[in-house]
């Protein structure tokens, strides 16, 4: 048995044969004459358009108009005259239609990615996808990739259009060996709730893998190729339990989150892209507790503009239809590096130049983000949260910057919510200790237990050698959480938890007893958390057990 580790795209289990999706390669470079090759291109383009129409209709009926729109955009690209001209220009070099289409696609993609507008930038991948689709028709391969039996797809990456045209009943799971967890196809995979993992090192996708019996343990983010009987039995059992559980949890949809003794709390979602808001809604989340906005910066080749950011933020608040959406401002540095920020190399990055510290030094970046956030506040229930706060002066700086952002929008005549809430993350020991003072200055707290544990325990959260020592249930952290909660409530502000500890079964009774107002977790955990909460009677919880 060979075991490969990756990153989770969507949880669940799959057992079955692998089906390889091979990335398109063009070997035929020399053409048979310009006119002939152009005719071949026209024919393949026509077939592509028909296939896209089909994908549009399928997606419309299964996922809705917003997701289906992508295929309409692809169709417009395939028909676009600039694209046709680019193909013609390439064909002048006596190359094959396949080669000309791929080159034309790359050329237009480069042009799109250099544009300022976020929407146009995102089109770069789409135009490449359209070109690939036409090439596969030219190679008469488009009908080649199909599933005839239930299979686990393994690929370097998969165009969204390919995914949508497949029979979903036959997709057991997907492994995107080279793909990222936030690519468009990964997001679609999550929406379709297909178990999937991505970003696997040391695994080459070759035809030899076709038909190999495997286990995809997407919950544990691993792939087991050629498992022995013992593992097959174990994972078949895990799969059954997972699916039975999922079915049972549906009973908690549409219900309030209440403890056995009737105490109310809220379950919010942690998301990393505006598209995931739909997932939060689907899982009956009561709000967004942490939108990690740095992923907008990580997905961009240059500083995202105010308009680009505004589109993302507006999409989330509109999708959540009046439910609270807490967007965290830029939190880069430490383990999240972005080339164009040109951050210095550091001895101790986790203790270094990161998040609000960067915003303080480079206020122009922060101003752009705040303006985009205030603009989006007009479209729903938006609140903003600042990471890595350690001192009052930082909070004062944030308020000054907010005032400047508001002035800016007033001058431009743009609408915004004057009273948008500004909160902070409590994720440093300093913020926890000072929480009585900070609670007077902000509208809410959200406890980031991942970093609060790292800094309280002085253990690097990403060091694999220290995983066993990294104990976020440590009594020092419980004491901090209790103290922060009391200080928040003393000043009449709410307090949530958005670190991984928020869904910890052992900690849950403690959180409910001390009165944490909101727990923010990945959307997929919403219903199971609601069920767990329904079984807890806070009268039976002994807080001392956690802190002494
Ligand atoms: C945290 O630190 O707990 C947190 C939620 O933020 P991140 O994991 O993004 O640092
Ligand atoms: Mg953090």
Q: Can you walk through the features of this model?
A:
By secondary structure, this protein is α/β, with parallel strands linked by helices. The chain has three domains: 110 residues, Glucose Oxidase, domain 1 (3-Layer(bba) Sandwich); 105 residues, PtsI, HPr-binding domain (Enzyme I, Chain A, domain 2); 291 residues, Phosphoenolpyruvate-binding domains (TIM Barrel), CATH 3.20.20. The chain has 21 helices and 16 strands. The strands form two sheets. It has an eight-stranded mixed beta sheet. Strands 9-10-11-12-13-14-15-16 form an eight-stranded parallel barrel, surrounded by five helices. The radius of gyration is 25 Å and the shape is globular. Bound molecules: phosphoenolpyruvate and magnesium ion (MG). Magnesium ion (MG) binds next to helix 17.
CATH architecture of the largest domain, by name, is Alpha-Beta Barrel
CATH topology of the largest domain: TIM Barrel
Using only C-alpha atoms, the radius of gyration works out to 25 Å
Give me the side-by-side strand order of the main sheet.
1-8-7-3-4-5-6-2
Terminal Cα separation, in Å? 46 Å
How many helical stretches?
21
CATH superfamily of the largest domain: Phosphoenolpyruvate-binding domains
Strand content: 5-15%
Helical fraction equals: 40-55%
Overall strand count: 16
Which word captures the global form?
globular
Biggest sheet features: 8 strands, mixed
Q: What class would the helix/strand composition place it in?
A: alpha/beta
Small ligands present: phosphoenolpyruvate, magnesium ion
Domains (count): 3
- Tell me, what is the CATH class of the largest domain? Alpha Beta
Low-confidence stretches: none
Average residue-wise pLDDT: 91
């Amino acid at each position: 048995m060979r075991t490969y580790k990756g990153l989770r795209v969507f949880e669940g289990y799959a057992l079955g044969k692998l089906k390889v999706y091979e990335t398109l390669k063009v070997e035929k470079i020399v053409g048979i004459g310009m006119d002939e090759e152009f005719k071949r291109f026209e024919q393949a383009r026509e077939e592509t358009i028909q296939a896209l129409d089909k994908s549009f209709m399928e997606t419309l009926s299964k996922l809705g108009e917003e997701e289906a729109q992508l295929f309409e955009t692809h169709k417009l690209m395939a028909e676009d005259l600039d694209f046709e001209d680019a193909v013609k220009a390439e064909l002048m070099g006596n190359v094959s239609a396949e080669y000309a289409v791929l080159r034309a696609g790359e050329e237009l993609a480069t042009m799109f990615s250099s544009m300022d507008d976020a929407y146009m930038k995102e089109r770069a991948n789409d135009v490449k996808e359209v070109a690939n689709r036409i090439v596969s028709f030219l190679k008469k391969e488009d009908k080649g990739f199909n599933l005839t039996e239930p299979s686990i797809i393994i690929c370097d990456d998969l165009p969204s259009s390919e995914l949508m045209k497949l029979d979903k009943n036959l997709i057991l799971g997907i492994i995107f060996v080279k793909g990222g967890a936030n690519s468009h196809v990964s997001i679609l995979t999550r929406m379709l709730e297909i178990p999937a993992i991505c970003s696997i090192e040391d695994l080459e996708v070759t035809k030899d893998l076709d038909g190999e019996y495997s286990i995809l343990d997407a919950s544990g983010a691993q792939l087991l190729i050629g498992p022995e009987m013992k593992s097959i039995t174990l994972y078949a059992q895990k799969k059954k339990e997972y699916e039975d559980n999922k079915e049972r949890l549906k009973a908690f949809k549409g219900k309030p989150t209440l403890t056995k003794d009737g105490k109310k709390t809220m379950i919010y979602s942690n998301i990393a892209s505006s598209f995931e808001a739909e997932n939060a809604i689907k899982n009956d989340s009561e709000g967004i507790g942490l939108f990690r906005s740095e992923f907008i910066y990580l997905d961009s080749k240059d500083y995202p503009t105010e308009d680009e950011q505004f589109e993302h933020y507006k999409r989330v608040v509109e999708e959540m239809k009046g439910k609270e959406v807490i967007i965290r401002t830029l939190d880069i540095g430490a383990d999240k590096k972005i080339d164009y920020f040109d951050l210095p190399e550091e001895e101790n990055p986790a203790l270094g130049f990161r998040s609000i510290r960067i915003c303080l030094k480079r206020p122009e970046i922060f101003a752009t983000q705040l303006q985009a956030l205030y603009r989006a506040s007009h479209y729903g229930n938006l609140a903003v949260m600042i990471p890595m706060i350690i001192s009052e002066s930082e909070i004062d700086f944030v308020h000054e910057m907010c005032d400047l952002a508001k002035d800016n929008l007033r001058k431009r005549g743009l609408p915004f919510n004057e009273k948008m809430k500004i909160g902070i993350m409590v994720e440093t020991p300093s913020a926890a200790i000072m929480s009585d003072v900070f609670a007077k200055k902000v509208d809410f707290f959200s406890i980031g237990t991942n970093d609060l544990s790292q800094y309280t325990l002085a253990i690097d959260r990403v060091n694999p050698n220290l995983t066993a020592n990294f104990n976020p249930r440590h009594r020092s952290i419980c004491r901090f959480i209790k103290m922060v909660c009391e200080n928040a409530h003393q000043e009449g502000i709410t307090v949530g938890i958005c670190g991984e500890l928020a869904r910890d079964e052992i900690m849950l009774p403690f959180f409910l007893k001390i009165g944490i107002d909101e727990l923010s977790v990945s959307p997929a955990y919403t219903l199971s958390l609601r069920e767990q909460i329904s079984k807890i009677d806070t009268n039976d919880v002994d807080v001392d057990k956690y802190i002494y």
